[in-house]
Amino acid sequence: MGLRLEGVTRRFGDLVAVDGIGVEVGGGETLALLGPSGCGKSTLLRVIAGLEPADGGRVLVGGRDVTTTPPHRRGVGLMFQDHALFAHRDVGDNVAFGLRMQGVGGPERRRRVAESLELVGLAGFAHRRVDTLSGGQAQRVALARALAPRPRVLLLDEPLGSLDRPLRDRLVGELGDLFARLALTVVFVTHDHDEAFAVADRL
Length: 203
Prior knowledge:
A hairpin with a 2-residue loop joins strand 4 and strand 5 (about 65). The chain folds into 2 domains: about 1-75 and about 155-203, 3-Layer(aba) Sandwich (Rossmann fold), CATH 3.40.50; about 85-150, no CATH class. By secondary structure, it is of the alpha/beta class. The chain has helices at about 40-50, 90-95, 95-100, 105-120, 135-145, 165-180, 195-200, and strands at about 5-10, 15-25, 30-35, 55-60, 65, 75-80, 155, 185-190. The two termini are about 20 Å apart. The chain contains 7 helices and 8 strands, in the order E-E-E-H-E-E-E-H-H-H-H-E-H-E-H. The chain has a 4-stranded antiparallel β-sheet with strand order 2-1-4-5, with helices on one face. A 4-stranded parallel β-sheet has the order 3-8-7-6, sandwiched between helices. The longest helix is centred in the C-terminal third of the chain and has 18 residues, at about 165-180.
């Protein structure tokens, strides 16, 4: 089993941002959440990842209730639209961030960083400065960082939104291939119908 949400709700004062969402995403399945900005998609991802508390309902990952579990112990990886890379760290240190949070030791951490960078087509980039990367490369580094802790569930919040159309079209195909190869459970947030149909098994 991958991800299951049971009546998940998130409120901000009188505003109900996420209202009793219930959905199940199977192991190895990619679900696209499609909708306009401001409809609660990103908030739902943040609740699943543990960055926002749920005001009601349950979040289960691999059959385990993680509703009150700290983010770094949920088995969930999250990639933001703006990549959220640390400009003062090199590529390898960015990718290693989640591994450090998990307490993964030096030799294993370096091996997992190299493995993750190779997965996204950036082998040999570990010592590159973040501010020298192109938009597409920064997107791949953010994906490698999300993959390095080997999450059971991967959440992508408009991951291609800041890229130009030709690059987006190319990366959409690469993402679909990568998800299938790793048999990841993925929730992919987008407002782009073409992206959703190209990447997802289900909308």
